[in-house]
Design goal:
Blueprint: H1 3-11, E1 30-31, H2 32-42, E2 50-53, E3 58-60, H3 63-69, E4 73-77, E5 94-96, E6 102-104, E7 113-116, H4 145-154, E8 158-162, H5 171-176, H6 178-187, H7 189-214, E9 220-224, H8 237-258, E10 262-266, H9 275-281, E11 285-287, H10 298-305, E12 310-312, H11 318-323, H12 326-340, E13 346-347, H13 360-373
Parallel strand pairs: 4-8, 8-9, 9-10, 10-11, 11-12, 12-13
Antiparallel strand pairs: 1-3, 2-3, 5-6, 6-7
Helix pairs in contact: 7-8, 12-13
Length: about 375
């Protein structure tokens, strides 16, 4: 099968020739430090380090790594608006994104963490009128994207268009600060609803403009929005269903109106509680499938939701990948693959990005095991 045929068969809940592999996407790649260690381990010299996310300090992997591990997908990111210029302040180790969120990497750190929030001052819905909103329909956002998607499709890959920013319920944590955003859910619902509505309208405008231009070449649309931590929901499921679910469905309706793409949602943590709601909204694919979180047992997820949802990720528990031996990594991968792969509906990937201190021999063991145990 071609890579695209393999991915689409799996997402249609059919068994392809082997489990498809995703490596190098926005949330399935690896930290720059991990890539450096891995290339040294494999004796690969040279090659540029291509950062794709400064916040997570992750890379578009060296093509030699992509060829070694194999992948069946080709992610294509959209771009920032034309008013934005990326610049890191070397003196303060900070940068700001196009929303005005400032990020800082502390000395010896691995990531740029959000440190200043442009809506921390806002309290009333009317305050949102004073915010400098990025233009969702700026043509520069999709400049060159159609050509990149078409080239990937013609090369036989499943194409994924990655959304700008973090989604209607996660982006407020960055715009307002996480503590403030969570408190507002309980104490300032008018503001929460007004912000959710403005963000929903922003995404409706973006997806309408983008997919009118590139929709025919998109197989999967990447969206984000963490709903869980390690033990349960980040906030009340009741709040999610009242405030965010109806608006999220509106965004999904826009995407399905302008393309035949599958809806692919990245939502970290313990999210079993939300899966029926996500399916109801039209989500086709769930990532990263954090199998070490509460309620996220791979066999149980497959049993209860495998007819309606494709699991993309969940390939190796993060603790095993970082702290286990290569033999333990292989055993872990074998278990997860055997749980998820029957009947299709599974694409192998690491659980989120491979982190900075993961031993390179474990990365190799993970992908070797995915190929060995992924055959149907």
């Amino acid at each position: 099968m071609t890579p695209r045929e393999r991915v689409l068969a799996a997402c249609a809940h059919k068994e392809p020739d082997r489990v498809p592999i995703d490596f190098g996407g926005r949330v399935s790649t690896l930290h720059a430090f991990a890539e450096r260690d891995l290339k040294r381990y494999l004796g690969l010299e040279g090659g540029d380090e291509r950062i794709i996310s400064w916040m997570t300090y992750t890379v578009d992997p060296d093509p030699r790594l992509v060829e070694l591990f194999g992948r069946d997908t080709r992610p294509v990111p959209v771009r920032p608006g034309s008013r934005y210029t990326f610049r890191i302040d070397s003196e303060t180790s900070t940068y700001s994104d196009e929303w005005g969120i400032k990020y800082h990497m502390p000395p010896g750190g691995f990531y740029f963490d959000p440190c200043e929030h442009p809506l921390a001052w806002a309290e009333a819905p009317s305050d949102l009128d004073r915010f400098d909103w990025p233009d969702p329909t700026d043509p520069s956002r999709i400049s060159g994207v159609a050509a990149a998607l078409r080239a990937a499709r013609e090369a036989g890959y499943a194409t994924m268009l990655t959304a700008p920013t973090l989604g209607i319920w996660l982006l407020p944590h960055f715009l307002c600060g996480m503590e403030r955003a969570l408190m507002d859910l309980a104490l300032n619902r008018p503001f929460v609803e007004a912000l959710a509505e403005r963000l929903t309208e922003w995404y409706e405008a973006f997806w309408t403009a983008a997919l009118k231009e590139v929709g025919p070449w998109v197989d999967l649309v990447h969206m984000e929005g963490d709903l869980g931590d390690q033990t349960g929901p980040l906030f009340s499921p009741k709040v999610f269903r009242e405030i965010y679910k109806p608006r999220f469905r509106r965004i999904v309706d826009i995407i399905t109106r302008h393309s035949s793409a599958l809806l692919w949602l990245h939502s970290c943590g313990s999210v079993r509680w939300a899966i029926p709601d996500l399916i109801d909204c039209g989500v086709d694919v769930l990532n990263p499938v954090q199998v070490g979180a509460a309620g996220m047992d791979s066999a149980e997820l497959k049993r209860d939701f495998g007819r309606d949802l494709t699991f993309w990720g969940g390939g190796c528990d993060t603790k095993v990948l970082q702290f286990g031996s290569p033999a333990e990594v292989e055993a872990e991968v074998k278990q997860r693959v055997e749980d998820f792969k029957p009947g299709g509906g599974f694409v192998f990937a690491s659980i989120h990005n491979i982190q900075a201190n993961v031993p390179p021999e474990n990365i190799v063991a993970m992908f070797d095991a995915a190929r060995t145990h992924g055959e149907y």
